[in-house]
Amino acid sequence: MLEDQASFPADGRDLEYREFQLNDIKVEHHPNSGILTKVEAFGDFKCHPAHHSLWSVPEPDAQPWQPFKSHLEFDVAEIALEAANICHRCARRSEKFTFRNHKDVRAKWDAASQRLTGFTKDVISIPFTDKSWDFDVYYCDLWEWATNLLHDPYLFPNFHFDAQRMSKFNGQLFKQFVDEPFTAQHFWDAQSQLPGEAKPLTFILYVDKTKLSSFGSAKGYPVVARLANLPTNIHNSQGMGGGYIVGWLPVVKEDKQHSGKPAWANFKVTVWQKSFERILSLLAAKSKMGQWLECLDVIQRWFFPLVLILSSDFEEQLTMSLTRGVRSLWPCPVCLVLHDKLSDTLCCYPCCTSQKETAEEREEVLKAYGLHDVLNSFWALSSTDVHRALSWDKLHFHSGGEWSDHLWVELQKHINEAVCPLRYLLLRCVCLYLELDMYASLEVHTSETISSGRHTHCAFSALLQRYIDKTADESNKNWNFPKLHMDVHIFDDPNEKMHGSLKDSYLLCTNFCDVAEQILCINTWQVVADCIHRRLFKFDEHQHQVHNSEEDFLVNVIDCPIISATNVFHVKLGSKQQSQTFDVIEVAHRDDQAFGDFHIKLNDFLNTLLPSLNVPLPSGKHIHLRGTDEITEYCFIHINYKSMVDWCQHTNYLRCSPLFFGSPRFDCVFIRLTENKVILGRLIFCFECQVEDRRFPLALIHPFDSPTGLCLRKDKDLNFFRVRVGPRAQAWFFH
Description:
Structural class: alpha+beta
Largest sheet: 8 strands, antiparallel
Number of strands: 23
């Protein structure tokens, strides 16, 4: 739960100052870190780790393409990797080129791969019936992989070793927000369990079985790891610091003789847990005693590895938590909800815990809760609670479950019915579901958004229950399913991007035999290529700075000024058209009332606009544009704006074109009239007007600001915000 804090804490000795301004950011580190709480102005705030100022990135490698002989050789090898064939480029002979065949290219990739953590292949034997079944499992050393990232000079400045609580001042209170795993309560609690000097090294593990072939005959079972100590924009990316395949689990093929039997279900779970145990095995001892490691800032840190987040489909979550399945007595992997209460999402239930029992205690628990009699591989890791680590997955639980299999199916039943009260009730459910899905999609959560999200979930649950009750007699639809219940855990405290590349690797780069080894090899080469690309970029950037003359530097500064955060451009016009006179424009749009007295209305607007901008009128006289004066039309607008969701700068592209890919397109926009009043409108005409030596970007907009009358019941029920367009002749100019 996020907590709001008074603007003046009882003990303010750890604050740098106590005079707070609107939107100030307060950063409170975990008490074990020994770092003082700090308050910064919003414009000055940068989410840097505490050790950031103590570390400077070294000069780039002078030969970043190594172990390839030259930049050219690396380019050719990468083309061969991406295109799945051998490509030769004969260009300038100033670069070394020693490749002669595919064997040379492969040998060089293998040499480059030595910089990354390699894979180990083990065979696990699981007894079942009267024989032992053998399975191949591939895994890499998770500790070695993590320390490689910690020793990367470009990644290290971004590591966060201590939990943080972030809050933003709203004028009265500091409102806590969460935008990274290390700002969430789970990270804070994990560090609280460790010795005072210890640092949590937190893993995010993503597991999901995927089809490699179009018909699903070939399947892969990758395990992807990320470090939650790195910011989201890094650990959710590809390449170094992003998602990395650290394991490949065996896929147990169904056996007709045993399929569907409890013993077979236990056997498959055992195969999964024993395989995953190999992946976690090299972290187990370090999670209990910790491991000292000297970082790049020459500081020894005592790391305790733990799994912070487990992301997967619901079926994998059942296997991870050893829950027997959707028909078991307690089917939720997170909490203790009874199987017949899954549709009752207004109630809260006790959380499951990863307590280790004796054999006798375990037997009693198994009887009471219907759990698999299998040792959980996650129990080997201290400070890791598998039930708390399991994360709500929007893709699998909402898009691939609650919507596609239930709400959408129900909605299709009622689409063609003329009058149906149930259809209206279902529409209200769908609207609240979409609102709940919106809150679940936010990348930055505050105490207010979490409270609003939970309120929306309660309203959705109550309304859906009404629909379920009204359709119970005439529908055989089962609404008592786990993915609906999982909505309860949306706000309790992250991406299937890799599957596409795995499928491409299977189809283009394997011989369809020993698939796992080939795909893991190709994936490693792709990560190596990304690392070399990054070093090449740093090297080229450094060389450019070194060889630029002082004259070039001055030219660059003048031609490309650095724009500060407080002076960044807001609007730029694009898709420039030929300049035209007002007479030509008014004739071309003579049937459009918005262009009536176009240049006369523009005179009135400019005579008001310029004084409001403290721009003197030409010669102190009112502007009087004539029909023969010219303006320049633009059909594209590039807008930078500060998001109200994550408070970062984002970019939007608007079109105002009579012919955009064969059709007219005039986008709608939000218009801020005053500090507290915003209206909607539609772009009609974008242009640039010159007044003496100054050019003003302007837009003619048709506002949607006419009175809408009394609020209709359906607008309230469906959360509609009704607008009404005014007369076209009332279109006006905006700067």
